[in-house]
Write a structure and sequence with these properties.
Blueprint: H1 10-21, E1 34-37, H2 41-50, E2 54-58, H3 64-70, H4 73-76, H5 79-86, E3 97-103, H6 111-121, E4 127-132, H7 156-168, E5 172-175
């Protein structure tokens, strides 16, 4: 995760995971490796056919029109098509399928979205990881004059209620622990600060 879209560079991703699993290298079990993707058509099926590693799909919104506003990849490979492909594979064994869901306060954290997730994923062997959106402060290089992000953090109570709604309806769901926020190093924060060069150096 965090190193670009793996399906854009699948040959190298497969070579790397094979090396990590090789007896002469780290000899990792594929259960220790998760590849995270937005779900690009050109590489997803090949990855599923050729790799035993876990798969995490960035979902973030269960409604295609709204998801497309967040993730342009939706326009080229729809969520519906992707889920149809994923249902063709057996996820009941050691291989795991996860869906990553960043929660934005007031945007995708209501029961409307929870109900749609249950409808879409309720018949799949998968889990949903709820991820906190970390508030981004003023961006020094922003073309909008240093304004912060338009997104807002979801309330903790709302996240717990969202998780419980999914769990009580048969979807395995967890809230991912957030670490590093106190030093602006949590997920999504590493690009929000820039050191000012010391002119004396």
């Amino acid at each position: 995760m965090g190193q670009g879209e793996p399906m854009d560079n699948l040959d190298v991703v497969l070579q790397t995971t094979q090396l990590l699993m090789a007896d002469f290298s780290w000899a990792w079990s594929p259960r220790r490796i998760t590849v995270s993707t937005v779900g690009l058509r050109k590489g997803l099926k090949r990855f599923l056919d050729e790799s035993p590693c876990h798969l995490a799909v960035s979902l973030h919104n269960p409604f295609p029109e709204e998801r497309a506003q967040l993730m342009p990849a939706e326009r080229s490979y729809s969520l519906t098509e992707m889920l149809d492909l994923l249902r063709e594979y057996d996820w009941t064994g050691q291989r795991r399928l996860s869906f990553e869901y960043i929660m934005f306060g007031g945007q995708n954290d209501s029961n409307r979205y929870a109900r749609e997730l249950v409808r879409l994923l309720g018949n799949m062997e998968c889990r949903v990881n709820l991820i906190r959106w970390h508030k981004i402060g003023p961006l020094p290089t922003s073309p909008r004059g240093g304004e912060g992000s338009e997104f807002h953090e979801a309330d903790e109570t709302r996240m717990v209620a969202f998780r419980d709604y999914l769990t009580h309806r048969g979807l395995r769901c967890t809230i991912r622990a957030s670490r590093g926020q106190d030093i602006d190093a949590a997920c999504g924060l590493l690009n929000t600060k820039r050191l000012t060069p010391d002119p004396s150096l």
